[in-house]
Write a structure and sequence with these properties.
This is Amidohydrolase. By secondary structure, the protein is α/β, with parallel strands linked by helices. It is built from twelve helices and 16 strands. It is elongated and about 80 Å long.
């Protein structure tokens, strides 16, 4: 076992469960890892989560397409919700692990959601086995579809706030190579960026490739648009602000000697504030429409928002409470990982109830340098010690409310 601190003081009683369930939790993690399911298609994963929660004494409620929420009431006291996501990505695994997902599936847990899920199930079992150590209500919330931004919205729209008791706070964590030595922590304020994903369709006029004068070439037009979009950050956004514009996909035409009728672009934006996000997406629309007008297109371009994530800003009070416990329990490993330009739909869960939230990182590797990043086909947290460590962080995090 790696040399990481065990829980101490009022939390030390959970250590026997962590020790006794280690083999079971590792087997469960490997099952999730070897059976990845894409966003909003996680039917087997969802069923396995429900089976585990039921077996350890939780009341389980289905919320949305595949979301599951386990509730354990243990006397009077605060209500704390912890959220874990459980969808995989359309990536072929190349880790070489003995429990690797079959590369032929072209699906893998390249973002650590299998670790998030197993850690929460482990913490949920520890709480169920040690009701003498805490009082209140614990909500173990398992959310699908984080990678597409559809899962949290699906649960909120399916009546999460009506079906599940309102918590006092919502907590969550994410594993990744962001803090050396398996560090843990975050900070209040903006942590992840807001994201808007848009499908843009540019309509030209089809023609034979040898007679371009009879058409309006949307491929050339798309190239102009892509280059023009690069000026938004450098010339339209305050250098003190964070903004990212990414054209992640371009599709148009099937033949080398045909000018197609249309080209489709898929674009994403990132920002730490709603104001900058609105500015980015307004400028994208203005540039696309302008270039299409200059080219003389017969049809206006269309814009369809296909995904995204909300503004993500940790609330100060729960941040201070949890970080104080992390410093107490994990010493020098407790800190923060700065701000990330990636996005998360986690706030949507807390906002369904209108309650504060805190979300932190757990280091997935001993050293960040050279470690495969999330969404890499090589990404894999170190099973030992990250599974135990991320289980302990959940138990530590809920303690200010459930074990004051």
């Amino acid at each position: 076992m790696a040399d990481l601190p065990k829980l101490t003081g009022r939390l030390a009683g959970f250590e026997d469960t962590i020790d006794k369930t280690r083999d079971k939790r590792e087997d469960l993690y490997k099952w999730f890892h070897q059976n990845p399911e894409l966003s909003m298609q996680e039917f087997a994963t969802s069923q396995r989560i429900e089976e585990v929660l039921t077996a350890i004494g939780y009341t389980v409620t289905a919320v949305g397409k595949t979301g599951k929420v386990g509730v354990l009431k243990n006397g009077e006291g605060p209500v704390v919700c912890f959220r874990a996501d459980f969808d995989a990505l359309p990536i072929s695994e190349a880790t070489g692990l003995e429990y690797s997902a079959d590369p032929a599936l072209n699906r893998m847990h390249a973002c650590g959601h299998d670790m998030h899920t197993t850690a929460l199930l482990g913490a949920a079992e520890a709480l169920a086995q040690h009701k003498d150590l805490w009082s209140g209500t614990f909500i173990a919330l398992f959310q699908p579809g984080e990678e597409t931004g559809a899962g949290a919205v699906d649960m909120a729209q399916a009546g999460l706030a009506e079906k599940i008791v309102k918590p006092d706070v919502v907590l969550g964590q994410h594993v990744g190579p962001w803090i050396d030595d398996y560090g843990v922590g975050a900070l209040s304020g903006p942590v992840f960026s807001t994201c808007v994903q848009t499908k843009i369709t540019i309509f030209g006029r089809g023609s034979h490739g040898s007679m371009p004068q009879h058409g309006i070439d949307p491929v050339v037009l798309a190239a102009k648009v892509i280059m023009s979009l690069q000026t938004i950050i450098s010339r339209n956004i305050d250098p003190q602000e964070m903004g990212v514009v990414t054209v992640g996909a371009v599709h148009g035409g099937d033949s080398p000697n045909t000018i197609p009728d249309s080209v489709e672009l898929k674009v994403s934006t990132r920002a730490f504030t709603q104001e900058v996000s609105d500015k980015l997406n307004g400028d994208i629309k203005r540039i696309v429409q302008g270039e299409c007008a200059i080219a003389g297109c017969d049809r206006e371009p269309t814009f369809e928002v296909i995904g995204g994530a909300p503004v993500f800003s940790n609330h100060e009070e729960p941040t201070e409470k949890v970080m104080a416990v992390f410093r107490e329990q994990f010493g020098k490993r407790a800190g923060n990982f700065g701000r990330l330009s990636g996005s998360e739909d986690f706030p949507t869960i807390a906002e369904a109830w209108g309650v504060p939230y805190f979300y932190w990182a757990v280091g997935s590797k001993k050293e960040m340098e050279g470690a495969p990043a999330n969404h890499s086909p090589l990404f894999a947290p170190d099973l030992d010690p990250v599974l135990d460590h991320s289980t302990r962080t959940i138990l530590a995090a809920v303690s200010p409310w459930l074990m004051p």
